[in-house]
Design a protein that fits this description.
CATH superfamily of the largest domain: Fido-like domain
Number of domains: 2
CATH class of the largest domain: Mainly Alpha
Strand content: under 5%
Largest sheet: 3 strands, antiparallel
Helix content: 55-70%
Distance between the termini: 46 Å
Amino acid sequence: MLKASYQIPSLPPTGFNGEDPAILKALAVAHRHLAELKGCAKSIPNQAILIDTLTLQEAKASSEIESYVTTQDELFQADLQLADWVSPASKEVSRYREALKYGFSKMQFDQGLLTNSTLIALFQLLKNSTDGFRHMPGTVLKNDRTGATVFVPPQSASEIQQHMDNLGHFINTPDDLDPLVKMALIHHQFESIHPFSDGNGRIGRILCVLYLTQTSLLDIPILYLSRYINQNKSDYYRLLQIVRDHGQWHEWVLFMLQAVAVTARSTVDLVEGMRVLMASTKQRIRRELPKLYSQDLLNNLFRHPYTRIEFVQNDLGVSRQTAAKYLRELVGKGIVLEHAQGKHIYFINQPLVNLLSQDEIL
């Protein structure tokens, strides 16, 4: 059997100084932007809009880190739930979003606990698998460019289970650590245990945002964390390994605090853009189609950047004929665009798609 190249430490790690001045300064900035995000999210009347729309963007960015690359158009087409359109990469992204949403709902059911059973369920959803933690030795992490082994995680099933039990205790037991510092430690520990045969990076990033909701730093899991990691991928992997090789936690924690601060700030801008766009769309429908307006219709157009007659029918509780009539009237006023592909017809909230696409390249 391979021998693990890093001894998984107890958390918090011995000698780690969470009161370091640089960490305290970074914490103040990260907390400020995170609090702003928590507050501005409440400006969107239906939180399901943010959960569905922003978690899809997070899913896209997180999946790109693992080389599952899809376009916004493919992503929104996949969200139409028309199976014959969905690319393999889009399926991966969609499963990521469903896993994140499931984890959030499961925490509510489990009184806020983040348990191993929840993490296993996330893996099973993400990978469409019935497996649990790794039970066969042989897993190694290699350099994508050179093929050289850079890290050997714990190999035996009993070790993995023990480490995950210890991590679960650390996650769910209150202590004096700042929760953002604790999130950084949790994420590193999870990635180093590497408990699953695949998808550890994505599940580890889901774990981060779920932990922020567990600690009430966010009400809903909408932190757009993966984009920062994707844009700084080499630093992310380098700092993960520096901790393993040299026990240097300081720079890793600072990196994760910076990731929280930057992504919270950019997500605030995105949420504010959505709020303004919703308000202007509401005013326009009320002015140009007053008999048509309802909050449920507005919510549908922002929860589904690409929508279908069936979505409007279900969300508004109207007949298919009425839903089709509503959408065609919106098309007539230029509020949505109608597209046909083969036998399928769908409707695009183009200003929202433009906003999400613009945010993607900032």
